[in-house]
Specification:
33% helix, elongated, 5-stranded mixed β-sheet, alpha/beta
């Protein structure tokens, strides 16, 4: 049991490191001396007159010979302090520091300082206890209750120090509350690392190697000091313990920051605000964390916002994300996640980015077994509606929109860009595939540019595919078309009384015919989805004919845009030469690796190279990600070409005639997209109920802006004109 004990007075500042952990011939300050900045003119002892003036200014020291300063040292600015042990103070002169409206005089007053190094021109006032810290130049530390560091500080990394038991190691139990996917947090972790580690748990050698790589990435020696980078401002805060804080960080009113790394730089400063409690975690560059946020065992990526009482526990949060007013527990969340409404819960999930959680949504809060081992996997663009409740275990295709409902059963939604509705009146689940394309083009077209604009990162370590129409979503579209063919064929056979138990290929062939040639017949069919919900009720597919052709239009839109852009960028290459270069088979497996799209083969290669020590550090692994990313445009072009081949019934290659037909369709689809973006927005302007809140249409336009001046509508028109020009250039090339 912990209790207060009496120790010798000198223990306040001596024996920071137990003697048995200090290498022979070294002092307890040997790691501190490695960390600290040494002034150009060196340190010097105080002169006798300086000591005298310091004493007159109500300063005390355990030993004045242990106070080292530089030549630029004004004793008049050092008042009412207690110094313990070796304290080294940089330049002090009669100037002031300003940060926003805060102005503080340079110097040290009313503080207790134990074994610290203090940089040049710092303002340290009313710091009640500061022990074992290295403070950078031009820092303001004001009204801090405790700023301390232990000899076994790990700064949020999942390591143990010499002599510590294994059970003190911090693990993150992501994606699953039962801990079967636990990973070690570390400074520099990105969501690609977390997914690679947490997803491939069946590969025992990989798990062992990632543990070894992380372990060797950090020094296990005891005695590292806490650090506060230059230009930091920390004021009116309670406890900062075992914290490593980057430069230009601003901390105001924090309650507790313990065992933490807060990354910050001049270009990407991080800010921590009032009432925040962060324990056992890593904070990325350029983050904003305010207003009573609580974080425990976490990694937060770059350019993230946490605010208004958010709780982030046992979770990894990707870059460019915002979480407010809610709780996220045991999650792995990819970049560009939005969860900024009250009373939402996200439990034991892997959400693959570009996602939005509405108010009152509770995902994974309800278990369907006695064990807490369920999971939710949601691919890109996941959007559950207001007050939506979803149970473990469930899986959602890209850009799934859930209408407001308490979904009673586990689900595996296989159709991308769909709207899902729980029809309680008819006791059936209803799915409208391609809903976004057919009814909300404004939102789906705006998706890419929206996330690109929000990406304020200066150092882009995690590679991210923001394009809505990309190899991963297009493979889901291809799979969705196949499912619609099979399910439509079965519906037709049921309607005619025939046996629907036929071969897969035969069903697809029949469905293909019906969906391309028998529009009215298909519209009369009751098409049912299979293996989508764990229940015995119907899963009704709404508008399968329209969705099937919308999926086809998406493939043409994706493929034509990428191919003509390539032809424009490479005018020296003919269409035939391009076709010769794109003969490889279509890559059907695409892994969303933390936001970066990687083929299944490449993931396997990464894993093999980690296991055989070819990749022997996280830096090497990140370099591999970058190499793959550099080659991604070529892979995307190949996939676009082969996706078009699939759409044209697997033709051996794209002849000029076929590609000309694709260009003709592409032109029509581009016009359709531009028109639908405009019409989607126009619906709001023509909605009589929405307009009823305004005195007149002039007031509406003053508030919402004029429809014709809508920035995104204008952007789409410009992009469409450019794409049409690219198609015109492509026509010249293939002649």
């Amino acid at each position: 049991m912990d209790k207060v004990t009496i120790i010798p007075y000198e223990k306040i500042y001596k024996d920071f490191i137990d003697a048995k952990y200090i290498p022979e011939g070294e002092s307890e300050y040997y790691l501190r001396n490695m960390q600290a900045k040494h002034p150009a003119g060196g340190w010097r002892h105080l002169r006798s007159d300086e000591v005298e003036r310091l004493v007159k200014n109500s300063n005390t020291a355990t030993k004045w010979d242990d106070i080292l300063v530089t030549d630029e040292f004004d004793t008049n600015l050092i008042k009412n302090n207690r110094f313990f042990g070796l304290v080294r103070i940089g330049a002090v002169k009669n100037v002031a520091l300003q940060y926003h409206d805060l102005r503080m005089p340079c110097g040290i007053t009313d503080s207790s300082i134990v074994s610290c190094d203090i940089g040049d021109f710092c303002a340290i006032h009313d710091v009640h206890y500061m022990a074992n810290y290295i403070i950078g130049d031009r820092c303001i530390l004001f009204n801090i209750h405790e700023l301390s560091c232990t000899d076994h500080s790990k700064f949020g990394n999942g390591i143990v120090k010499d002599g510590e038991p294994e059970d003190v190691r911090v693990w993150l139990e992501v994606m699953n509350e039962a801990g079967g996917r636990k990973i070690l947090p570390f400074d520099g972790m990105i969501t690609a690392d977390a997914y690679l580690w947490a997803k491939y748990t069946d590969n025992e050698k990989l798990q062992k190697r990632l543990f070894e790589i992380t372990k060797k990435s950090f020094d296990t020696r005891r005695g590292y000091y806490g650090t506060i980078g230059e230009g930091c401002v920390i004021k009116n805060s309670w406890i900062l313990k075992d914290a490593k804080i980057g430069q230009n960080c601003y901390i105001k009113g924090a309650s507790k920051l313990k065992n933490i790394t807060i990354n910050s730089s001049e270009d990407e400063p991080t800010q921590i605000g009032e009432g925040v409690i962060l324990v056992n975690g890593i904070v990325g560059y350029g983050c904003r964390i305010f207003y009573s946020v609580v974080g425990t065992r976490f990694v937060v990526g770059d350019n993230c916002n946490l605010k208004y009482g958010a709780r982030v526990i046992y979770s990894v949060l990707g870059d460019n994300s915002t979480i407010s007013c809610c709780e996220v527990l045991n999650n792995l969340i990819f970049p560009a996640h939005e969860q900024h409404h009250n009373n939402s819960f996200l439990i034991a999930a892997c959400v693959m980015g570009q996602s939005n959680m509405a108010a009152g949504a509770t995902l994974g809060s309800n278990h369907n077994s006695r064990a807490t081992d369920g999971e939710i996997v949601a691919k890109r663009g996941f959007w559950p509606g207001l007050c939506t409740s979803v149970k473990h275990s469930s899986k959602f295709a890209s850009f799934t929109l859930l209408s407001k409902s308490d979904y009673p059963n586990e689900m595996d939604i296989k159709l991308p860009f769909c709207l899902v509705n729980n029809n309680t009146a008819k006791d059936q689940l209803e799915i409208m595939p391609a809903y976004w394309w057919m009814y909300n083009m404004y939102a789906i077209a705006r998706n890419t540019s929206k996330y690109l604009k929000r990406d304020k990162r200066k150092r882009k370590i995690q590679n991210i595919e923001f394009e809505t129409f990309a190899p991963d979503t297009m493979e889901e579209v291809i799979a969705g078309r196949k499912l619609l063919e099979v399910w439509t064929a079965k519906a037709y056979l049921r309607s005619t009384g025939e046996n629907e138990d036929k071969e897969y290929g035969e069903l697809r062939e029949l469905g293909h015919h019906l969906l391309n040639e028998e529009k009215e017949t298909v519209r009369k069919l009751e098409v049912l989805g299979e293996n989508i919900e764990k229940s015995h009720r119907k899963v009704l597919i709404i508008k399968p004919y329209e969705a099937y052709h919308a999926y086809g239009d998406m493939l043409i839109y994706y493929s034509v845009r990428n191919i003509v852009l390539y032809l424009k960028s490479n005018p020296e290459i003919s269409f035939d030469e391009m076709s010769e270069h794109l003969t490889n088979a279509r890559q059907r497996e695409w892994v969303n690796l933390g936001g970066q799209l990687v083929t299944g083969d490449e993931v396997d290669k990464i894993i093999d190279d980690i296991c055989d020590c070819t990749l022997n550090s996280w830096e090497a692994i990140h370099n591999r990600y970058d190499e793959i990313w550099a080659n991604y445009p070529k892979q995307k072009l190949l996939h676009s070409y082969q996706a078009l081949r699939f759409l044209y019934d697997r033709c051996p290659s794209l002849s000029k005639e076929i590609f000309t037909d694709a260009l003709d369709k592409g032109e029509k689809i581009l016009h359709f997209v531009a028109d639908q973006v405009y019409l989607s927005r126009k619906k709001d302007y023509e909605n009589a109920i929405r307009n009823s809140t305004f005195r007149n249409l002039q007031e509406r336009d003053a508030v919402n802006g004029k429809l014709e001046e809508n920035s995104f509508v204008r952007q789409i028109r410009t992009e469409t004109a450019e794409a049409l020009e690219n198609i015109a250039e492509a026509r010249k090339i293939i002649k």
